[in-house]
Amino acid sequence: MRIGIDIDDTIATTFEDILPHMLDYFHLKDDDLYYEKSGYYQHILGVTDSEFFKYTKEYYDQLIPEVGLKPDCREVLTRLKNKGYEIILITSRSKDTFQDPEGVTLSWLKKYGIPYDKLILSALNKKDICEQEKIDVFIDDSVRHCMDVSTLGIPVYLMDSVTNRHQECFCPRVYDWLSFELLLEER
């Protein structure tokens, strides 16, 4: 079985870990955030795409290596890998937001000992990638990506995140990696 897995806010604690830096950079307070808008960071922050991408291009290569890992993620992925699951990491990380998306991502994955079979960067259309890669199960924190991929008829799970709690999604929401593992075992 091939599992397609997003990185940021699905296996990594990206938003919560870099939020203090983003608030400082954009001169915002927690009360200034728009969580009810789409899960994209720039919409939550209330800044333009160009302002946000200028920020990411300048700081992501330094900030992302310090981002943490969601609880139990490495252990669950290791057990799934040992059971013969193929782990395909599908991330939107690209040259639009990083100076070196591949280097930063590979280093981060190595730092945390994340098992995987394939890494796909610059994945703006995850539905097409899931179809090409013959993904059997998909998990992401993005409501948009989950809804798109679900049209393929494969099981899709939305990883709960502060960035998506105010958004509706008909895909099952999982709150942690142990719950996701249990859902896979029940299939």
How do the helices and strands line up, and which of them pair or pack?
Layout lengths: L1 E4 L8 H12 L15 H5 L3 H15 L9 H10 L3 E5 L10 H12 L5 E3 L5 H7 L4 E4 L2 H8 L5 E4 L13 E2 L2 H10 L1
Parallel strand pairs: 1-2, 1-4, 2-3, 4-5, 5-6
Q: Rounded to an integer, what's the Rg over CA atoms? A: 16 Å
CATH topology of the largest domain: Rossmann fold
* CATH homologous superfamily caption of the largest domain: HAD superfamily/HAD-like
Annotated CATH architecture of the largest domain: 3-Layer(aba) Sandwich
Largest sheet composition: 6 strands, parallel
N-to-C order of helices and strands: EHHHHEHEHEHEEH
Shape, principal axes of CA atoms:
globular
Structural class: alpha/beta
Spatial gap, N to C terminus: 11 Å
Q: State the domain count.
A: 2
Mean pLDDT, to the nearest integer, reads: 96
**Considering DSSP H and I runs of 4 or more, what fraction of the residues is helical?**
40-55%
Number-wise, the strands total 6
Give the gist of this structure.
42% of the residues lie in helices and 12% in strands. The chain contains eight helices and six strands; from the N terminus they run E-H-H-H-H-E-H-E-H-E-H-E-E-H. Helix 6 crosses helix 7 (143-150).
Descriptive notes:
The chain is an alpha/beta fold. It has helices at residues 14-25, 41-45, 49-63, 73-82, 101-112, 126-132, 143-150, 177-186; strands at 2-5, 86-90, 118-120, 137-140, 156-159, 173-174. It has two domains: 2-13 and 67-186, HAD superfamily/HAD-like (Rossmann fold, 3-Layer(aba) Sandwich), CATH 3.40.50.1000; 15-65, no CATH class. The longest helix is centred in the N-terminal third of the chain and has 15 residues, at 49-63.
